[in-house]
Amino acid sequence: MTQQTLIAGYQNEISFQRHMLHNLQRWQSMFSMVVGIGVLMLYFFRQQSIWLFGAGIALSVIGVLMILVIGYGIYHGKKNLQRVVLRYERETQPTGVK
């Protein structure tokens, strides 16, 4: 494996992981909207319909749980990305500086 191929592989991996972290952040935003809808359902249907009130509770709970799970994935994804960047920087330094 040549140095050029190694550098290209690291750059592709770093770009891919950044893109995936961005996607996870979008999913987290979407689930925060789900929680908001659930809270609105709790507020507006607290006396009219027990089914819609229950659906609001379910949406809120599921949304909060998903936000936490995705946040956990983002946290570990950022740590992994830092490790890959550090290895990339170590590999691309001139020989003798390692």
Helix content: over 70%
Indicate the radius of gyration in whole angstroms: 22 Å
Q: Got a strand count?
A: 0
Report on the biggest sheet.
Answer: none
Please state the average pLDDT score. Answer: 91
The fraction of residues assigned to DSSP E strands is under 5%
Return residue spans where pLDDT drops below 50 for at least 5 consecutive residues.
none
Dominant shape: rod-shaped
DSSP helical segment count: 2
**Content-based structural category:** mainly alpha
Compute the number of structural domains.
1
- End-to-end CA span: 19 Å
Task: Describe, in plain words, how this protein is organized in 3D.
The chain has 98 residues and is mainly α. It has one domain (21-92). 87% of the residues lie in helices and 0% in strands. The longest helix has 43 residues, at 50-92. The two termini are 19 Å apart.
Which key phrases capture this entry?
0% strand; mainly alpha; 98 residues
How do you describe this structure in short?
The chain is an all-alpha fold and 98 residues long.
